[in-house]
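fyi for ur records
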Amino acid sequence: MTKTPTADLNYKLKNEAIAQYRYKEPSESKLLIASTRKIITFDEYIQKLKHQSVFIFNKSTVRNVRIETFKSITGGKIEFFILNIIDSNTAEVLIKTTTKLKLKSELKTDVAFVKIMHKENDIYTVNFHTDVMALINKFGKVPLPPYIEDNPIKYKDYKNEFATGGFSVASSTAGLHFSLEMISLLKAKGHKVFLINLDINLGTFKQIDTELVEDYKIHSENYKINKFDFENILEYKKAGYKIVAVGTTVLRTLETVINTKVYEGSTNLFITPGFKFKVIDTLITNFHAPKSSLLSIVQTIFGEKWRSLYSFAQSNNLKFLSFGDAVLFNIDE
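which gave:
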């Protein structure tokens, strides 16, 4: 099979196209219908949706994993970005500081006494000598993406209204277009709604750094879906309902489960051109960054036409990335 040059996933993203704020009313955010290039609001989409559909959302919660503090002796700044909790006192973290940290070194900070246990690439394994979740809950800040200017007024906006449980360090941003009221309206109109859990990690922001897309080693993420819910989703599909994945994390989870029959585990499913979708009929997703693994999903679904579609979106002042607008793709259309 012919491999895809990573350069094929590149495009010029204008700074002014990157949304810095979420819509005050999710129903007013814009949705570009890929097949027709029609731009509507999410309110219009829900009101006019006639085909019986199953909407599936990622309910994983963005945790306040960014902890800014000071070294007790020197007073220097240090930031811990908690990626994964290994046990109650130990976590994998990114560390931002001006001094070099040595393995097995210990340092006292204003929030905890820290010991550096291990380092692999840029990720440290750290023992905080106290409960990590307690640190997160007491001192943590919402981890806004690097392309969004940090401001506490945005923290609440980066979390989905329906989020519950899970441990994500980034938001399932397609879900930001849906309020609880909008989800209730979908149900009232006869559509079905399911919630799954996929814990999003920082790999979602990484650019593909190999020359060919298929040679890239994609990040793994933990997921969980109720077996009974999954079987119901498939039954609805057989009955003619359209299966709508709200976000690429939902898509990856469902396509993983249909192929593995494993309902709780870790997925490193990398969707590249040639992939055959077995569950999803429709994908609602935000506009993705250049050379991202998420953009590979878009190319797989929409082919080379994605480039002119993204150009059309920027020309029509649609907003990109986490707080931006969205696009709707119908599979095999």
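The chain has two domains: 6-62+150-330, 66-139. thats all i got for now
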